[in-house]
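dumping this here so i dont lose it
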């Protein structure tokens, strides 16, 4: 729960990340060998050939046969059946850029053979939808069970979107709420109240995702380190520590100042440990959700005094199914998220944007289409949000946010990520 959902437009089938290389001339035998290897990889992914006949032992040690089978299932769910090799463009005697054709897309990326002619490295890092359109994207999004929302277009207020659906709908965000914490911290630093290199002791823990929950209380850490952990790996302890630093009231002020259309759904602003505890204790969570905002603030103060930032003092949720996602969460619609993204884009100090760009949530080829790409996502069972702050090479800012809430069942991350990839492939003109 509450982790970053990184959009990998590349579906890696390799222990080593590869970059596409420039085509080069090779002899006919090498070209034929590379083509045969690509055909053999297709046969493995279609279950027609054993992986050990095609892939090098080191590759299979990192990506075992069951992982390859799961990959084939995932690819088929997103792009339809794998039908064959579209092209093989040699980049050396033992390397090539390959393209595999699926029913709905063409997957492209580099392949490298070892000295025995087995595939040592393979990466599909770009998927181009075949015969796609905005109407098809919107239809596929609308067909998902539950509620979905999408906005893709210029970040400027009142701009005409490239593609939008239910952009006014309040959606549970998961860890995308951490953008409000980042914006509040950055503004306080700009005002001279804090510094990015300010060192503070760790005084609270939460539950994963993240790593800081395993650090000792009292460990010294800078605010920039906490912010980077909070955004790049969705560290919940880092987020809760920063909420303590900047103050719940300051985040509420940022939420309102950024133009949030329904602040009462999110305020008082919960820490991740608050949310875990309220979801784990059904009676307490139900009473909290039913209370007025003023009463919620009182209940929250009492609860936080009771648990004192100690995860061992909360009733831990199981999160096998969606739990109170309509009442116990952080909420925003696409326009609300545009407000906080505008605040981050408008900061004179680029540090907050640099932090968002650590994990840009897209493949290298897709990232190369933008001058800047920053990302934050969030999920729990029944909740998924993917949000990008983007800048084109002419300097214009864009937003892509796509969300899916289903209180009846968990949502499939791969499905929504695939739709987001298709949106990002649309022309911006």
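and the seq i came up w/
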């Amino acid at each position: 729960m509450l982790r970053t959902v990184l959009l990998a437009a590349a579906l890696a089938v390799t222990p080593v990340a590869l970059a596409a290389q420039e085509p080069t001339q090779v002899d006919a035998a090498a070209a034929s060998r590379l083509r045969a290897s690509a055909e053999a990889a297709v046969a493995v992914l279609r279950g027609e050939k054993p992986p050990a006949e095609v892939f090098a032992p080191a590759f299979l040690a990192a990506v075992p046969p069951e992982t390859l089978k799961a990959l084939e299932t995932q690819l088929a769910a997103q792009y339809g059946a794998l039908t064959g090799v579209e092209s093989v463009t040699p980049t050396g005697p033992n390397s090539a850029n390959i393209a595999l054709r699926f029913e709905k897309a063409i997957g492209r990326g580099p392949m490298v053979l070892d000295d025995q002619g087995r595939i040592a490295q393979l990466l599909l890092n770009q998927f181009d939808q075949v015969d796609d359109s905005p109407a098809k994207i919107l239809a596929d999004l609308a067909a998902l069970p539950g509620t979905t929302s999408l906005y893709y277009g210029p970040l400027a207020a009142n701009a005409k979107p490239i593609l939008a659906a239910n952009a006014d709908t309040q959606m549970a965000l998961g860890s995308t709420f951490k953008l409000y914490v980042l914006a509040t911290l950055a503004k306080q630093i700009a005002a001279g109240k804090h510094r990015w290199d300010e060192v503070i002791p760790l005084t609270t823990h939460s539950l994963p995702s993240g790593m800081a929950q395993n650090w000792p209380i009292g460990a010294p850490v800078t605010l920039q380190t906490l912010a980077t952990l909070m955004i790049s790996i969705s560290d919940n302890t880092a987020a809760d520590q920063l909420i303590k630093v900047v103050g719940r009231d300051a985040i509420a002020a940022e939420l309102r100042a950024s133009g949030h259309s329904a602040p009462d759904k999110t305020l008082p602003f919960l820490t991740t440990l608050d949310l875990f505890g309220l979801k784990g204790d059904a009676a307490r969570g139900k009473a909290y959700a039913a209370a007025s905002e003023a009463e919620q603030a009182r209940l929250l103060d009492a609860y936080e005094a009771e648990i004192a930032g100690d995860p061992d003092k909360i009733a831990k949720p199981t999160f096998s199914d969606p739990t109170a996602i309509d009442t116990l969460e952080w909420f925003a619609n696409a326009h609300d998220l545009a407000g906080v993204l505008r605040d981050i884009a408008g900061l004179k100090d680029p540090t907050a944007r640099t932090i968002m760009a650590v994990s840009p949530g897209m493949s290298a080829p897709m990232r190369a289409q933008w001058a800047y790409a920053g990302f934050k996502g969030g999920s729990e069972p029944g909740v998924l949000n993917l949000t990008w702050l983007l800048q084109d090479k002419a300097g214009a800012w864009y937003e892509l946010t796509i969300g899916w809430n289903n209180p009846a069942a968990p949502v499939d991350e791969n499905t929504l990520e695939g739709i987001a990839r298709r949106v990002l492939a649309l022309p911006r003109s």
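The domain at 19-124 is CATH 3.10.450 (Nuclear Transport Factor 2; Chain: A,).
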